[in-house]
């Protein structure tokens, strides 16, 4: 009997948790910090709660397909548009690629990666992450021969973790990650915009999902001055 009551309590707790938010979204992992701050500010402004899962673009797509409650995805339009799952895109901001090295080390140019001292270069998976694709493109355009020296990871925060632990010699991250760890990393170089395709951070409103006042309010909030200020603070 106690077991049945416990199971029922767990189910009730799960149901309560599942319906605790007014809006469910999914977000590229590299944008966890700014989006979390946006969700907090949105709640203070409107009283509405947004919850987000985080992962690489393939993961957030899978999450949105498995959970029909997810109404929108925040990520790079370059990845999202070919998926054919969005009925509308709302531009939020532009992303920026950064090259960073561990604390106590310096780097002057992306061309320095040609030197043998840069034996391990961390990048996101080019097929699954926005900044992994941008890093790969940037190295190709800058004629950086890094075969056998790159360490591909599933999500951008993992690149930061390798840099913070000093397990790699350099890594490509976004400006948001760079600002979040600015006191714990060495040199952080912004990459020239022409070395990769534009990174358009967008809200993809998904097809076949019911429209809701919460989604409308969230979309409007993302275009507000308050949201832009938060994004700018995170380098977006």
From TrEMBL:
<dbReference type="GO" id="GO:0046872">
    <property type="term" value="F:metal ion binding"/>
</dbReference>
<comment type="similarity">
    <text>Belongs to the bacterial solute-binding protein ModA family.</text>
</comment>
<protein>
    <submittedName>
        <fullName>Molybdate ABC transporter substrate-binding protein</fullName>
    </submittedName>
</protein>
<dbReference type="GO" id="GO:0015689">
    <property type="term" value="P:molybdate ion transport"/>
</dbReference>
<keyword id="KW-0479">Metal-binding</keyword>
<dbReference type="InterPro" id="IPR050682">
    <property type="entry name" value="ModA/WtpA"/>
</dbReference>
<dbReference type="InterPro" id="IPR005950">
    <property type="entry name" value="ModA"/>
</dbReference>
<dbReference type="GO" id="GO:0030973">
    <property type="term" value="F:molybdate ion binding"/>
</dbReference>
<feature type="signal peptide">
    <location>
        <begin position="1"/>
        <end position="20"/>
    </location>
</feature>
<dbReference type="Pfam" id="PF13531">
    <property type="entry name" value="SBP_bac_11"/>
</dbReference>
<keyword id="KW-0732">Signal</keyword>
């Amino acid at each position: 009997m106690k077991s049945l009551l416990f199971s029922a309590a767990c189910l009730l707790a799960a149901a309560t948790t599942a319906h605790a938010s007014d809006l469910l979204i999914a977000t590229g992992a590299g944008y966890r910090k700014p989006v979390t701050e946006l969700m907090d500010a949105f709640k203070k402004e409107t009283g509405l709660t947004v919850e987000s899962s985080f992962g690489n673009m393939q993961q957030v797509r899978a999450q949105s397909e498995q959970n029909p409650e997810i109404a929108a995805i925040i990520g790079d339009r370059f990845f999202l548009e070919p998926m054919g799952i969005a009925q509308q895109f709302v531009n939020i901001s532009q992303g920026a690629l950064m090259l960073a090295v561990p604390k106590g080390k310096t780097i002057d140019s992306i061309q320095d990666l040609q030197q043998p001292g840069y034996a391990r270069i961390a990048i996101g998976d080019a097929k699954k992450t926005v900044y992994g694709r941008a890093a790969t493109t940037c190295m190709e355009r800058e004629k950086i021969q890094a075969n056998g020296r790159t360490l591909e990871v599933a999500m951008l925060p993992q690149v930061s973790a390798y840099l913070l632990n000093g397990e790699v010699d350099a890594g490509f991250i976004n400006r948001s990650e760079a600002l979040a760890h600015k006191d714990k990393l060495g040199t952080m170089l912004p990459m020239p915009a022409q070395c990769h395709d534009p990174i358009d951070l967008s809200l993809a409103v998904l097809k076949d999902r019911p429209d809701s006042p919460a989604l409308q309010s969230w979309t409007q909030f993302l275009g507000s001055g308050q949201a832009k200020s938060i994004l700018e603070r995170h380098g977006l």
